Structures are given as C-alpha cells and as structure tokens.
Amino acid sequence: MVSNKWCLLALVISLGFWTSCQQEQKKQEATTTPTAQGGNYAAPKPPANITGEEAKINYVFTHFWDNFNFQDTAKILNTGYGEQAIVDYIGHFPLVKADTLREGIEQVFDAAKIEPSVFNFFKFQFENYLAHPNSPMRSDQYYETVLNYLIGSEKVSADEKTKYQTLLPILQKNKPGKTATDFAYTTTAGTTGTLKTLEAPFTMLFFYEPGCSSCEEAIAEMKSNLGLNSVIENGGLKILAIYPDGNEEIWKDYQNQIPNNWINAIDKDQVIVTKNLYMIKATPTIYLLDKDKKVILKDSYLPQVYGYFQSL
C-alpha cells in the first residue's frame, strides 16, 4: 500500500519554490489592478476594547461599509475607490464564517439599493471578481452567496433572475467535501472507464482543450516537475486529462502533447458539457479529489493544488 504522506514528500519539496514564485507574481499583479485614483476607501478599524484576532476580523467585516457613501456615484465609480473597496472586502471572505459572509453580502446590497447605478456596479464587480474565469479571486462558493441574494432581490429584473436561477444549480455541483459527479471516458487505447472506478489516493481532473495556450503552459509545468512525476510513478496521484468536447480528430492529433503517465481521455458523447456535469468556464479546469472521489479543490489553480499538498 502506498503511503500518502511519504509519496507526497518529494512533491512538497520540489514544488515549494515554484509556488512561491507564482505567489510573488500574483502579489505584483495585484498591486497594479485596480489603480488608486485620489485615495482608497478606508474601512473602520476595531476599537481598543475588542480583543482577539477573530473578534477584530469580524468587527472589520461587519462594519466594513460604515464610512462608505453609497450615494456618491462619482467617487464609487472611480476604479481606484469603489472597485478597490470591493476587492478589499472580498479579501476578507475567507476569514469569516458562512453566516457572517451571507449577512455581509445582504448588508452591502441593501445599502447599495439607494442608488440603482451603485447597486448595478456592486452586482457587476462581484460577478467580475468571483465568477470570471480569469479572476484569481474567483470562487463558486462565494458567488453562490451573491446569487442567492440577487435571486430574491426586487432590484433584479425577471430576465436576470431566470439567468441566475439557471446558473445556481450548476454552480452548486461538485462542491468541496462532496463526491465528484461520475462520468464515462474513452482512453487513447480505446478502452472505456469511469471516474469512480479510478483507484488512487488522489486524482486530479484536468479538463483541457487541444491548442489552448493556458493548458499547454500547465501541461509543460507539470510534465517537467520531478516531484509531481515521482508521486505519479509511486501511485500516489492519477491525472485524468479529459477533453470534454468530443471531437475525436482534434483529440487524436493532440495525443503526443499529453504526458504518458497521465490518463488521456475524451468524452465522446459530450455528456459532461451537454448535461453540465461540471462547470467548465475556461480551460484548463482543475479539480483535486481524494481516494473516495470527494472534491478537495474545485476549479483550482496549480499553486492551490501544490499548496494543499504542502499543508499535509
């Protein structure tokens, strides 16, 4: 039997530097978008009588918008003020409990209702940062909370509500902690299989599209990573690279680009796409699953995957 802890040790050691470089790159990117113009919004600081880190965090989050003038449209629509305030607010989401987050979302939208253009601005920015496939802050979990509010809001049109009501159940699929939706696939050898029958301590789902530049960058990084390949060879991880769009000719022409120690597969009948089994906003879309095929990471980045292994 493969020991999860020891077979992942090489991965942790090998990937530490790459993860740090990626995190530093993201920090540098974050400092340039959006650009402040005329000063950023300053949220209230916790008073001296509030002690304990959790209490201070909760105070800042629940009082975040106390100093914000929701009627000053000119200032709010300034990228460096309104948008930056939302980015800072989203940065607090991982630090608070789900109920606190839900109450906070309700609070900010209720306050923004005073001015329609401001309400729409907040609606757009939350979607832009939490749902856009290229956003480093994207999170189905957090965006679900936003959608639940918008679906029940009288400020949202019937057409928009229909769109949100259609999106919500798709968003709720394959949550962390839940069993990943099973699907069938065909390999390059012509054999068929299903996700649930794969046996490994960890499984990575790598939804890709032949020729996608981001896919090729991720493939090249993983292909050259000695730690990752050591874990694969030791049986600690299986990577199922799945092309969901069903074009066999394109898929076969691309086979040489997929590493030999991965499972290279296609969904011939396009069930994954047509039945919305997985929400694939962009490629690559990466999931990390445990031995029971429960989702550990959903729609993740490679640094997040590496960070998870480092935390073991």
Describe this structure in words.
Keywords: Signal. Residues 28-47 are annotated as: Disordered. The protein has helices at residues 4-7, 9-30, 53-62, 73-76, 79-90, 98-112, 116-130, 140-151, 158-171, 213-223, 226-233, 248-253, 271-274, 302-311, and strands spanning 184-187, 192-194, 202-207, 237-243, 263-266, 285-289, 295-300. Residues 1-37 have low confidence and may be disordered. The chain has a seven-stranded mixed sheet with strand order 2-1-5-4-3-6-7, with helices on one face. It is elongated, with a radius of gyration of 22 Å. It is an alpha/beta fold. It folds into two domains: 4-22 and 176-311, Glutaredoxin (3-Layer(aba) Sandwich), CATH 3.40.30.10; 33-171. It starts with a helix and ends with a helix. It is built from 14 helices and seven strands.
Brief write-up:
By secondary structure, this protein is an alpha/beta fold. 47% of the residues lie in helices and 11% in strands.
The CATH C-level name of the largest domain is Alpha Beta
- The strand line-up of the biggest sheet is 2-1-5-4-3-6-7
CATH superfamily of the largest domain: Glutaredoxin
Distance between the termini: 18 Å
**Total count of helical runs of at least 4 residues:** 14
Count of separate structural domains:
2
CATH T-level fold name of the largest domain = Glutaredoxin
Query: Which outline best applies?
Result: elongated
Q: Please state the structural category.
A: alpha/beta
Average pLDDT over all residues: 88
Under the CATH scheme, the architecture of the largest domain is: 3-Layer(aba) Sandwich
Strand content: 5-15%
Q: Rg from C-alpha positions?
A: 22 Å
